[in-house]
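Researcher: Quick one. two chains, 613 residues in total.
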Amino acid sequence: MASSSSNLISLKTSDGTVFKVERALAKTMKTVQAIIEEADANIYMIPIHNVFSHHMDMIIDYYKLSVAGKSKEFSVEKLDNDELKDFLLAVHYLNMEDLFEVLTQAVADRLEKKSVGYVRKYFGIENDFTPEEYAAIRKKNDWAFKGDDIEPEEDEEKQEE
Amino acid sequence: MAAESNSKRRRIVAEEDRISSLPDCVLSHILSFLPTKTSVATSILSNRWRHIWKHVSVLDFSDDFRDESLFEKARRNNKLFEHFQNFSVFVNRVFSLRMPYPIEKMSLSCVKSLYNIESCTSSIDTWVCSVIGPHLKEFSLEIDPIQKYQFEPPITLFTCTNLVSLSLIGETGMLSSIYIDPRFAEEIRLPSLNYLKLHMNNVDIHTMNGFLVGCPILETLDTRLFGFNYKKLRVPSTLKRLKISSCSCLEMDLYSLGFDDLNTFSDVGNLQNVVKASLDVFRCSDGCYLANILVNFFDDLSGIKHLSLSISTIKLLLGDPVHLRFPEFRHLLHLELILPWFNQNSLLSLLHACPMLQVLIIQNDKKESTSPEWTAQSTVPNCILSHLTYIQFKGCEGFPDELLFAEYILQNGLVLNKMSIADISVDILKYYILRRLSNVPRASRLCQLTFD
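Model:
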């Protein structure tokens, strides 16, 4: 029964929960905004795939903090790496600029000064280089690998197989 | 067994989906927050990652060593120049191999390995010149000073139309490694500049004004001024944050000012929009003149809400002669002071001058101690009665006048929410202070007393 003058938009997450959010919040989600604008009639309920209810909770938290001018207080520290990646994907899908910046920075912070093996595991990347290719790249970008913990943890990778 | 391998397979599939759902542009965006060295290192992760670093429009180079011991070792073995050469090869490689997208942010820090002056100069000059352009939004350069070496940025750096943030750091003691040609002053045009940081010993007032006039929407200024000379400093009305430190050689400039010149101090306009300021002014021998300048300066900061003053600034403001006229800080809400000594009389006089103060943070520096007598105040400062909600006292030594002051606040603070006493190293002292202050009748029922 949402009328066109209503300030609330209904969003349905992948796990079936319906969130009624303020129009201003929906505006920060460019994907949702595009759907609203394209619709001829009033949209009753907008489904948002790839977004779960726990993501919406955090998005609403962030929105409330940023409206109060306290966006710096928003923290994703309690999320583990997988949860952070999922959240980043959700926000990327919704195309929310500010929150996206916050999350990419958070991911970058977690990657900084970590070894190649850690980053591989973090993103689930498979090493598809041949040993020769691998050695060649290492040699070419020698300075990038100098002196830091960039040493690949070869033993760790062998164990995983 | 079957269930286990099923779930493992599902997990692997899920992980793969995760990678493919993050497009390259998101990955390169993540890399843009990392130092370039790290970002280039990702080329070794997999074939897909081989070229992602090349799409990043942000460069962040530093010739830093991983830790101090490696630096010391290199220095002892005269390998610093070799380090710079390797660094130089890397930087040039990055410039050559990356996609020819314009650079939006550039940060260059050469603080460890500048050695052979000529070759270093031309390298740095090349790198800086290659990023200057209409797309450049943020630029930061930090060079460690070496005798006789000064890097001169080209004028084109100071006419970048989209530059939002500019930071030039090049000083140690009396040396300065960056030099801005004073003839550039009139030509500075940075219409988008919001943040300016100049930490060089040699910026004179003429060049400083050149920046201020050429940056019409400047909001944050962090600088040293060579000589505490505010004569005709034209501050844009948009300025919100100001950080100034003055080196001790200001003595020379001050003597060159005749008494009449002090009156022209009123030419400093437009400071009334500054909301937050942090001041660190070194004392010179003729404290009287300087203190007056400070007072006038504070008058100009009429809209200030958040003020933080260093020891030397306090010494000037509260010190000899003690009966200095205090400016009134009508809008001040938050005050942080590092006190060279504890003098509750001058502290209370200062509080009288801040009628709306809500937060007071004082830190006792313990360098000097005087204990002038506590004189009873005729009226309680207005802020204590009606606005002060939080007071923090760091480094309390337990002197009688300190405790009397704390008690005074507790007894008179009608809206006080919290008094926090922090950084007391000696436990017995802590206990004594706790006991004494807990017994004081508090004017505000909600008031909490905490010790950190």
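Confidence is low (pLDDT under 50) at residues 1-5, 148-161 of chain A.
Researcher: Thanks, that's what I needed.
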